Amino acid sequence: MESPVCLSRYFERIGYRGAAENTLEVLHALTRAHTQTIPFENLDVYLRRPIHLEMDALFNKLVVARRGGYCFEQNGLFLQVLLQLGFDARPLAARVRLRVTDRSEIPARTHLFIGIDLDGQQWITDVGVGGYSLTRALLWQENLEQDTLHDRRRLIHEAGRWFHQVWMEDHWLDVYEFRGEQMPASDQKVANWYTSTYPESSFTKQIMAARALPDGGRISLLDGLFKHRYPDGRVVAHHVASDELKHVLLEQFAIRWPGLHR
């Protein structure tokens, strides 16, 4: 059993002032508050610093130090919060397909998200998939288009595989695929090590950051390109100079460069 987290400090971190109970309304609200407040980011991976998945380490980094993290950190912490609130939640494994459009090509199973059984229905949530992180839970139902404040999603099922998709401009984009199998701590440890140390991992080669905005927009930073996607679909982008990087991370994502004190 993981070490418990201090729920009051977590709620303060994400600006949540609602009920502390295992209801669908709370699940949606926490998913949205978490994604809008705790940024997705990979600075420690980029700087070749180890990623620790013990709950104390996750809480200290994402809550106390007010940093962000990637899927194993974000969803690892969020899963523990849900469990402490009494949700029937479990860690699930997925294969990210954002850069793999050929369905015959199978990417590594290196993504963690969360499954929830609630009132006789199955749901998924995911606060750790970068610019595509959910801002409300999705009902685990085939071909059901589900609107969130930030975008439209659906889950499709083909040949034993589920595909989580997002509507982008004029087409459905695969975010990741999964089969519903759980991802125990041992598998998370191996996948985290691979993702954070393998030289060809995209996380080791470029700085990433993303956050959902309360107005329905999103901001992201990938390999020096900053993008602001507005609620109406407009995208404004510009390249960030190296001497601007720390300022952009702080002002746009509330991320202080590792090593700097608050």
In short:
This protein is of the alpha+beta class and 262 residues long.
Explain what the structure shows.
This protein has 262 residues and is α+β, with helices and mostly antiparallel strands. It has a single domain, classed as Arylamine N-acetyltransferase fold, CATH 3.30.2140.20. It has helices at 7-14, 24-37, 43-46, 55-64, 71-84, 185-197, 202-205, 245-253; strands at 40-41, 88-96, 111-118, 121-125, 138-139, 146-147, 152-158, 161-168, 171-178, 208-212, 218-222, 225-229, 235-239. Strands 5-4-3-2-9-8-7-6 form an eight-stranded antiparallel beta sheet, covered by helices on one side. Strands 1-10-11-12-13 form a five-stranded antiparallel beta sheet. α4 crosses α5 (71-84).
Explain the layout of strands and helices:
Elements: H1 7-14, H2 24-37, E1 40-41, H3 43-46, H4 55-64, H5 71-84, E2 88-96, E3 111-118, E4 121-125, E5 138-139, E6 146-147, E7 152-158, E8 161-168, E9 171-178, H6 185-197, H7 202-205, E10 208-212, E11 218-222, E12 225-229, E13 235-239, H8 245-253
Antiparallel strand pairs: 1-10, 2-3, 2-9, 3-4, 4-5, 6-7, 7-8, 8-9, 10-11, 11-12, 12-13
